[in-house]
Amino acid sequence: MSSIKKDLILFNELVEALLNEEEKNPVAERIEANELYNSIDLSLNQSPMIDDAFKTLLEEVLVSTPKTATKLFFNQLFGGRQSKAVLGDLLAVLLNNSMYTYKVAGPQVGIEQEIIRQSCNLVGYGSNSNGTFPTGGSMSNYMALIMGRDAKDPECRANGMSKPLIVYTSKESHYSNAKNATFAGIGKNNIRYISADAKGRMIAEDLEAQIKVDIQNGGIPTYVNATAGTTVLGAFDPIDKIADISEKYNMWLHVDGAYCGSVIFSEKYKHLIKGVERSNSFSYNAHKMLGTPLTCSIILVNDKKHLYDSFSNDADYLYQTDGDDFNLGKTSFQCGRRNDALKFWTLWKSIGTKGLEKIVDQQFDLATIALDYIRNNSDYKLYSFDDSISICFNYKNIDPTALCTALYEEQITVVGFGSFDNETFIRLVTINANNKKVDILNFFKVLEAFVEKTPNLTKVAEMSV
Question: I want to staple 461 with a disulfide (CB 3.0 to 4.6 A). Which of 23, 173, 226, 398 is the partner?
Answer without folding.
Answer: 398
